[in-house]
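queue> holo job accepted (magnesium ion)
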Amino acid sequence: MEPIICAGQLLIVDRMPETTDKDIVIARIGNDLCVKRLRVLDDGAVCLHSENPNYKPIPICIEDNFEIWGKVLHSIQLFSKLKMIALVDCNNFYVSCERVFDPTLRRRPVVVLSNNDGCVIARSEEAKELGIKMGTPYFQIEHLIESKEVAVFSSNYTLYGDMSARVMESLHRFSPEVEHYSIDEAFLNLETRNRNLVVKGESIREKIYRWTGLSVSVGIAPTKTLAKIANRVAKKERKGVVELTSDNLCDEVLTDCVTKF
Ligand SMILES: [Mg+2]
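queue> job finished
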């Protein structure tokens, strides 16, 4: 199969080649090396063609200081291109920690308050649906507590720290490179040899839930910033895992971010 050559790739080159028309070659013209397609015309004349149609073919004259340096057999993606980054982020972390130890809280609106019970710092989906916003002072939602049976918790950082450690320890089973980014999120370097990273993300979600009782969202992309955005999309659209692969998809999501925020 003919190699597809893109920027940032390694080329496997045969230095003792038998070249024929249309081979991709590394040619030396004078002191310069270039990668071109070899064309041998009917009259025996030799030309070097670029894949980019904007570049004119280079005719080779007998007097040119020219040689076929090698024939390109394969192309390989560089190691740095073989990595993708996953941002694993716990959903409604403080609330989810409280729910692990009290399953009766599932499907109930739950909020966690800041130190001294000042304001709301975590909400379950049900609490969000009641219109309770992050940072709302507690006294402003007191009327909902009874009427909507909202469960309210003072923050318990000993519990959250312990649950965080369980999640982080579990994440090390999926990648040798884990960066703890905050109490409830971490970046993982993922090898892309196994290209189906959405399946890998689903596996991370399923196992973290089984091992810790916490649900997470996973955003996968070539950079940390894009992985963060992918994670946001995963949460907003309740998809669980979102992978941003193509440049077009990245552009689409970034344009969406710019228009919304
Ligand atoms: Mg979170």
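queue> Residues 112 and 153 are 5 Å apart (CA to CA).
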